[in-house]
Design a protein that fits this description.
This protein has one domain. The chain is 51% helix and 8% strand. The chain contains 5 helices and 4 strands. The strands form 2 sheets. It has a two-stranded antiparallel sheet. A hairpin with a 2-residue loop joins strand 2 and strand 3.
Length: 103
């Protein structure tokens, strides 16, 4: 059975916690991209914080679904000082409505 990757990422954040500035915090929390990485089975490849092509595709797909021109990237919204976890939940729920499955 397929599961929506955005719904899965949200469940990961609710379980493990949300962090700013770190893909995975020392306490096991995740940023948006970190949670999407876990939801995708760690298929997103990070290289010194530079997005590889798969990361770029995930980033653009998520940005298209959730931000609709409001934010340029998941990193920009995640690390924005004014962003709250409620904002992150809302964005992931909105993205989930558009699809994006794994499995």
């Amino acid at each position: 059975m397929t599961e929506n990757v955005y719904t899965q990422a949200l469940a990961i954040l609710r379980k493990d916690g949300w962090s700013k500035d770190y893909r995975e915090g020392a306490d096991g929390s995740h940023c948006i991209l970190g949670a999407l990485d876990v939801a995708c089975g760690h298929k997103l490849d990070y290289d010194d914080h530079l997005l590889e092509p798969l990361n770029q595709l995930a980033e653009e797909n998520f940005a298209d679904r959730a931000f609709q021109g409001i934010y340029p990237s998941a990193i920009a919204v995640n690390d924005n000082p004014e962003t709250t976890f409620a904002d992150i939940e809302s964005l992931l729920e909105k993205a989930a409505q558009g699809g994006g499955t794994t499995g």
